[in-house]
Amino acid sequence: MSEQEQNPVKGKLYGVGLGPGDPSLMTLRAVEVIAEADVVAYHSARHGRSIARSIAAKHLRSDHVEEPLVYPVTTETTDHPGGYQGAMEEFYEASAARLAAHLDAGRTVAVLAEGDPLFYGSYMHMHKRLADRYEAEVVPGVTSVSAAAARLGTPLVEGEEVLTILPGTLPEEELTARLAATDSAVVMKLGRTFPAVRGAMEASGRLAEARYVERATMEGERTGLLADTDPDSVPYFAVAVVPSRVGNPGSVPSGPGEVVVVGTGPAGPLWLTPETRRALADAEVLVGYTTYLDRVPVKPGQVRHGSDNKVESERAEFALDLARRGKRVAGVSGG
Amino acid sequence: MSEQEQNPVKGKLYGVGLGPGDPSLMTLRAVEVIAEADVVAYHSARHGRSIARSIAAKHLRSDHVEEPLVYPVTTETTDHPGGYQGAMEEFYEASAARLAAHLDAGRTVAVLAEGDPLFYGSYMHMHKRLADRYEAEVVPGVTSVSAAAARLGTPLVEGEEVLTILPGTLPEEELTARLAATDSAVVMKLGRTFPAVRGAMEASGRLAEARYVERATMEGERTGLLADTDPDSVPYFAVAVVPSRVGNPGSVPSGPGEVVVVGTGPAGPLWLTPETRRALADAEVLVGYTTYLDRVPVKPGQVRHGSDNKVESERAEFALDLARRGKRVAGVSGG
Q: How far apart are CA B146 and CA A139, in angstroms?
């Protein structure tokens, strides 16, 4: 045995983001890493094909060693003594051991990952089990979030806006609270969660803005209003998008002017309720004591009238006058 | 004049995501669109180079018509009568008019965009002004968020976790509230906002988990703990990352067991305070009346003991016993 065979150099692990589905949305780096890999691994469903493999298909060669990592369970029940969690844990351990054997033999392993490997992806389970023992590199990819916004042709998030990414599997009340409290949002993992997501959009007042995107950039792509989507037709590979509010006047209520008095609570913005955040986001004009106004995030297009804390009646009169002229005014107060 | 010259076919507008900085993180589609474009437009600072142009440089040809869109202001003051907002508005209008002239003449225009075009990008201003009159297509790109997680080699968001993307320009109290209420987070646009972001990380109890990434995938890249970062050294092109908590035991306090009693408030999850969310996220075991427990999002690795509403004293005893054995227990109650 040569010295090299006794102490072989270990192989390198790559988590390769493939993007949302259209093979042309792979990065140059993803193509390069696959070309240089000895082993190409990918997750696949038990009775189905691997979406990851199909995205990268054009770049696979006959001399690539392929390692399909076949999920033992998807949504069906399992007779594993540890239940779903136990079956998955065992599967990840076994998969990592298979990849480790290649790495120990000095082979470069590319694990294909739909979208971005570290964003709700299966690659993470391999990374956690192997990256402490082997050299590992993650090639980031285009997420389904970016793909959905691109196919809708609508800005996702701008300027001072907050974007919240939510799994549709959260309880409906939690989804409602999160949707009410954010500017933009994307809800992942629809399918069976769709009725709860739709309910949360409605309860949080976001349904009119919400869009629906299925299989963005892939065959069978579908986009539309979430409100018009038939719940029975929604697969897991669909997302709900609440786009940017900036320059999107359809997203705020129109109608006669109004004054909403908004209490910022004993802890200021820390304890703002979703209803308060909503009222602040919907207002065209903010009126209040400068100290409190400064605690409210600046929104493009929103006018702020700050004054000191000695002119309360003038401020109220001013706010009412603006409302009479058709403006939606929020009076910001402490307490 | 031929008929075609009298009624020329209008050109097509592309917003082309270039990814986070490393030219190899451009997508195949981005390269293809640039190759087919007649005009390549990109934003650039008044006294500096265009980062977008430098990412795509290898794909630009001498027969490309280049349209640099030079910002009239960056952070300095302006003597425009409309101030910063007025100067920018005028700039976007003038830029759109220049691109429209090319499109009217039948030229294909590719607007280069760092990262993803619809994610806090400048391309959006062109899209809003032109996409209603011309055919437009957005090529999504890898965001700096995905790049930062890749360079840290740490999962960004998993399973049932919520990811919040925040601009560092928000008020510090607002940042604190948002950071306390989310699982994972990325704070964009650091630079001068860094002290406030650091303060918010500390106040929300997230500082120990927070990572710092500067110029991910670009020359001069720097990564580390946010807590160790010198505030004076932070440029605008840096982000703060609070990674996934799943399988990241360093992210929750260790020490002796404890019982925290968590009130879900009159409106359930809708009105949870950041402190409540934090206590629920940090707990190893949740104990409570099943109806209330079902309203709390499931976290991997967290054990739930639900019971009916008639066994309150048994429940309390059970929770205290777990805490005595070193567990962090949250007792979930209504009201």
A: 9
Query: What class is the A11-142 domain?
Result: alpha beta
Q: A residues 207-266 near B, CB within 8 Å?
A: 217, 244, 247
Side-chain-side CA neighbours of residue A217 (13 Å): 28
Q: Which superfamily, per CATH, for B9-141?
A: Tetrapyrrole methylase, N-terminal domain (3.40.1010.10)
From B161, B165, B171, residue closest to A294, measured CB to CB: B171
What's the helix, strand, coil split of chain A in %, to 5?
Answer: 40, 25, 40
Say if CB A128 and CB B92 are below 8 A apart: no
For B45-97, what is each residue's pLDDT tens digit? 877 689 999 999 999 999 999 999 999 876 666 777 778 888 889 999 999 99
The answer to whether A53 touches A42, Cβ cutoff 8 Å, is: yes
- What one-character DSSP code corresponds to residue A27? B
Residues of B in contact with A180 (CB under 8 A): 270
| Digit-coded pLDDT (tens) for B140-157 | 999 999 999 999 999 999
AA identity, residue B104: D
Min Cα–Cα distance to chain B from A67, Å: 23
Say if residues A130 and B162 touch (Cβ distance below 8 Å). no
> Across the interface, do B171 and A269 touch by the CB < 8 Å criterion?
yes
Asked if the Cβ–Cβ distance from A128 to B32 is below 8 Å, we say: no
- Where in the sequence of chain B do the CATH 3.40.1010.10 domains occur? 9-141, 255-333
Start and end residues for every CATH 3.30.950.10 domain found in chain A: 145-246
Check: CB of residue B45 under 8 Å from CB of residue B74.
yes
Contact A306/A288 with Cβ under 8 angstroms?
A: yes
| A173 to B139: CB separation less than 8 angstroms, yes or no | no
- Token readout for B51 is 């980062």
Instruction: Tell me if A142 and B27 make a contact (CB, 8 A cut-off).
Output: yes
In this prediction the ipTM stands at 0.84
Q: Which of A169, A247, A273 sits opposite B271 (nearest CB)?
A: A273
At the top level of CATH, which class does the domain A145-246 belong to?
A: alpha beta
Query: Sign of torsion, CA B252 B255 B259 B261?
Result: negative
- Window 6-45 of A, Cβ < 8 Å to B: 17, 19-20, 22-29, 31-32
Domain B255-333: state its class.
alpha beta
